[in-house]
Amino acid sequence: MGKPSSRSGTFKEGLAAVSATGHSRLGVNVDHVATVRNARGGAHPDPVRAALLAAEAGADGITAHLREDRRHISDGDIERLMSQLRVPLNLEMAATDEMLKIALKYKPHAVCLVPEKREERTTEGGLDVAGQHNHLAPYVRELVGAGIRVSLFIEAELSQLDASKSLGAPVVELHTGLYCETPVGPAREKQLKRLEVAAAHAAKIGLECHAGHGLGFDTVEPIAAIPTLAELNIGHFLVGEAIFVGFAPAIARMRAIMDAARAGLST
Fold first, then answer.
1. pLDDT per residue over 50-103, tens digit each?
2. Among 36, 75, 239, 244, which one is least packed by beta carbons within 10 Å?
């Protein structure tokens, strides 16, 4: 089993590195490489190959969502990712007994608990941690007890952040979908402010804060500039952009935009 790269570090080391170097981590989601593979069947394109290429191109970690219906990433993909990756794997999953068993079997670096509906094309919003406290508590407890870093995918609401803290999860990931879908102008600025306030509150109460969903070259810069965000997770856009420019160049450009934003420079 591959050991996570030291680039990921611990919670405190990660925040210290962000503060000292201006570098925020980039997690690359390879789900939709598997979507293309599964559209025709067979083994090509291989999401594990994409994950290894992403790591070479500057990704600090890899994210993969093992859905209950296995519409893209498969159990075999998770097994191969765990054996071949030398950067951390973030396993996205629903809070179900089946997924808990898989997570405890493979013990990825991190697990991000996400809401999941069979009929949705992609994750449509954040977990209602405040309303599902009793359901989520045993899953968080078992995962943390196994030494897995637990993240909760939530909306940028202070009540959800406080509920996440009360559950004992060390990390939250803010859903950026609404921000990305809102046209440029005052309405988007309002969504950006909402994310900034949430990220600041997360830091205040001792949570490491990540963000993701729908981010692309034209939306990532203001998000990457938020100083209390330690990591961004981006997938669908990069896989789509790879069709035109290649996977490694797309990741390298995203990495450059993120770094410039954190340094206060405009691209």
1. 999 999 999 999 999 999 999 999 999 999 999 999 999 999 999 999 999 999
2. 244
Which positions ≥6 away from 93 have C-beta within 8 Å? Answer: 65, 66, 99, 102, 103, 111, 112, 113, 114
Rounded to two decimals, the pTM is: 0.88
For 125, residues 6+ apart whose C-beta sits below 8 A from its C-beta are 115, 155, 175, 177
Q: List C-alpha distances in Å: 260 to 83, 221, 253, 256, 264.
A: 33, 8, 11, 6, 6
- The catalytic residue positions are 65, 92, 213
Domains belonging to the chain, first-starting first, are 11-262 (3.20.20.70)
d(CA 39, CA 41): 6
pLDDT (tens digit per residue) in 194-245:
999 999 999 999 999 999 999 999 999 999 999 999 999 999 999 999 999 9
The sign of the dihedral angle between the CA atoms of 176, 182, 185, 189 is negative
Tokens of 200: 């600041």
CB 48 within 8 A of CB 83: no
Comparing CA positions, the residue from 89, 77, 60, 68 lying closest to residue 232 is: 60
What are the tens digits of pLDDT across the range 15-27? 443 444 457 899 9
* Residues in Cβ contact with 245 at an 8 Å cutoff, skipping those fewer than 6 apart: 253
Q: Rounded CA gap, 34 and 64, in Å?
A: 10
Q: Give the single-character DSSP code of 150.
A: E
